[in-house]
Amino acid sequence: MAAKLLLTARLRYAAPQAGRGVLSVRQSLVKQSSRGYAAQDTLGSLPKVSRKQITVANDDGRINWKYLSVMEKVARTTQQTFNFGVVLAGLVMTGGCAYFLYREVFSGDSKTAQFNRAVDRIRSDSRVKEALGSGHKIRAFGEPIWNRWARARPIASNSYKDSNGTEHFMMHFNAEGSSRRGVVSMHTFKGPGHSDWQYKYLALDVKGQPRIYLENSDSPPEKQNSRFNFLGMQWRK
User: Fold this and answer.
1) Measuring CA to CA, which residue among 84, 109, 65 is closest to residue 232?
2) Residue 85 CA: distances (Å) to CA of 79, 90, 151, 195
3) Exposure string (b/e) for 103-121, b if CB count within 10 Å is 16 or more?
4) How many helices (H) and strands (E) in the chain?
5) Which tens digits make up the pLDDT trace of 115-157?
6) CA 69 to CA 64: how far, in whole Å?
7) 235 phi and psi, to 5 degrees?
8) Which residues contact 209 (CB under 8 A, 6 or more apart)?
9) Exposed, middle or buried, 15 (CB in 10 Å: 0-12/13-18/19+)?
10) Which residues contact residue 196 at a Cβ distance below 8 angstroms, ignoring those fewer than 6 apart?
11) 28-37, 159-168, 195-204, 210-219: which has the minimum mean pLDDT?
12) Which of 149, 154, 189 is nearest to 172 (CA)?
C-alpha cells in the first residue's frame, strides 16, 4: 500500500515537469524561427549596390538588358546601331575595292590587261626590235611626269560605246628600246554579243621612221594575214 502511494506521488510530480519540457522546446523553436525571419528581413533591407550610369561611350554589354533604365536602353541601342553601321560600311568598302581591282587589273576587259597584251605584241615583233633595239630590253611606260623617280606613270586611254552598241577602247603609251624610243597607239573594239576584243589598229611611231603597223583592220583584205584567237584578242599569224 505504501509503494502504491509512492508511485502515484511520483507520477503527479513528473507530469508537470514533462509539460514544462514540451513548453520549453516549443518556445525554443519559436525563438529560432523569429531569429530566421529577422535575419531575412535584415538582409532584404540592405541597400542595393550602386553602379555607373550606362552611356553610349562606356557601355560594354555586361549589364543585363532588364536591369537598364529607359535612357540606358536608348544608349545601348544607339551604340549597337552605330557599330552595325561601321561594320556594314566596312563590308561595302571592301566589296568596292575588290570590284575595282577586278575591273581595273584582273578582268580581261581592264586597261591593264589591254596594255599587257599590246606590250607583248610590241616586244615579239621583229620590226619593232629593229626600230627600237633588243626585244628583251624594250620597256613600256605611260605619260612622262615631272617626278622621274615615280614608277607608276599614268597611261592615256579612252573608252566609249557607239550608237550600234560596239565598245571601243583607245590607248597610247611610250616604248623604249636599247637605241630608240617610240609611241605605241592602239584601238580595239568589241561588238554586241562578242566576248573577244579585236584590233582596229596597233602601231608604233618612231621619229624619223615610217609608222609600223602590227594590226590594221583598214588595210586591204589581200594584205591581211590569217588571224587566230588567243587571250581574248584577235592575233595575226
Assistant:
1) 109
2) 10, 9, 38, 39
3) eeeeeebebebbbebbbeb
4) 4, 8
5) 999 999 999 899 999 999 876 688 898 876 666 555 556 788 8
6) 11
7) -120, 155
8) 131
9) exposed
10) 190, 229, 232, 233, 234
11) 28-37
12) 154
13-33, pLDDT tens digit by residue?
Answer: 555 555 555 556 556 655 665
If DSSP states are collapsed to H, E and C, what string results for 57-93? CCCCCCCCHHHCCHHHHHHHHHHHHHHHHHHHHHHHH
C-alpha cell read off for 30: 519559436
pLDDT tens for 25-63 read 556 655 665 565 554 544 444 455 577 888 888 888 888
Which of 138-153 are b and which e, b meaning 16 or more Cβ less than 10 Å from the residue's Cβ? bebbbeeeeeeeeeee
**Pairwise CA distance, residues 189 & 195, whole Å:** 10
